[in-house]
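Render Crossover junction endodeoxyribonuclease RuvC in 3D.
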Amino acid sequence: MVRGAVTIILGLDPSLSCTGWGVIRAEGSRLSHIANGQIATDPAAPMPARLDMLYAAVAAVIAAHGPDCAACEEVFVNKNPQSTLKLAQARGAVLAACGGAQLDVREHAARLVKKAVVGTGAADKAQVQAMLRVLLPGVAVAGADATDALAVAIADAHLGHHRQIP
């Protein structure tokens, strides 16, 4: 549900070890930070417990901040098939939490996120972090994964997928 010209966007950077999340408010071209964080899972825990933790934590973020929509980084294929499978399972838990809240979820490739935020799809992490400080001045970011999640939300806002047409 979009609140007129204001949209609350949940950005997600899924990972089994540490999922980043960030919530922003987009009003036209103006962006403001609402919250961000990281969800770390216990590597010693069984896979079902780790996935349940991700699901529950993302569901709690959604309940706390009431986003209108979500944006998630697309899965990429690693050289290690086991890593790709674990990432896909983590994404499944995160997307299931969004589905449970009936959120519209847009998926964006990492290169598209970088291009939308920095201006080039070949941007490195330092360039993304620097642009994030410009776009959301004074924001204390929980860590690298939260930075990536905020970048996904910002890219989604810049791409305009959730704006209403008058």
